[in-house]
Design a protein that fits this description.
Largest sheet: 8 strands, parallel
Structural class: alpha/beta
Number of helices: 14
Strand order of the largest sheet: 7-6-5-4-3-2-1-8
Order of helices and strands: HEHHEHEHEHHEHHEHEHEEEHHH
Radius of gyration: 20 Å
Shape: globular
Distance between the termini: 16 Å
Helix content: 40-55%
Amino acid sequence: MVVDTIRTIKLLGKWSYNRAMGRRRPLIAVFGLTSYCNFYCPMCPFGDSDKESQINLSKRNDLTLDQWKIVFDKVAKHCIWCIIEGGEPTSRPDFMELIRYLYSLSLPITIITNCSLLHTIDLEELKKYIQFITCSIDSVFEESYCKVRGVSPNMYKKVIDNLQLLTQRKIPHHFNSVITKYNTQEFIDQTYFDKAKELGANSVSLTFVEDRSDVEYSLLPDTETMTKVCSSILDYTSKKYSPQLMIPPQYFQQIIEHGKATFDECGVWKSVFVNSNGSVMVPCWKFNSPENTYNILEKSVEEIWNAPHWEIAKTCHDCKVLGCVWYSSQPITTFAQNYMKGLSKIISQQTPELLER
């Protein structure tokens, strides 16, 4: 723990120096280990219904274990935290090998998963390596969950069973929900939070869906419903109930006032997102073209972050309600305050267990 803290302080100092010198550098790493997912979520490009083709594409294009190790080595020199996602990251047969290697680099790890395959993993071993698991639980009720995720009631039951496994193993986990027109009521009546607590969630993160540009449908609720959701969430936050809400109230206040989240300059550059094939899109996935795409196996982080395409982030406001973009684009004080609040929550939850050892 002491070594990790010293490492973090050094990297934060280096990042601050680069920023003072006008150089963009990433601070958080996001690794999309695979382009395959066993779910069918309509708001996600990995929700493709043709799973056979998706599996074949994944086999051809996903980085190998050794290639990912090279990527981890490059990125770990810059970042204080990493997020593992996919597709569905736990679908990789070498998932635990990748986690072990990341842990050996003293890079704190968070996993984002749909939780459908956690029963196939050695959770006791996984617990040693990670900070917590982010469970993608858009709805806590079977009917709306299955509608949003495109899965059967049996899959919903398997996910619930696996959430209970996390609680039994005392593995810290929090819920992340994408709010669509199919699951708004449980946030308006606040029943989502009650069920999340029952399922052992330490905290909850909520953001509205950002509609994809490659489809003709919209999953975003109407303005009146969004206002009701935001008002209810702000009411919940003011009462300081448990589980704690991880998205700052400013996000929901801005949506009520402006109909969208607001920021001056997109802060997407503060994270490095490596796709399953090793590509990094500058500044983000909305600008997926050959001239804006780099292979991190061939280029250094410095080379990619010095690319001229980052200038797009200064004027782009295409994302209206995408929470991760909003968060990274806020003043550093907003991030620091909520980071410390979340850190204190994690420490308070883990202290009893540490004292028992």
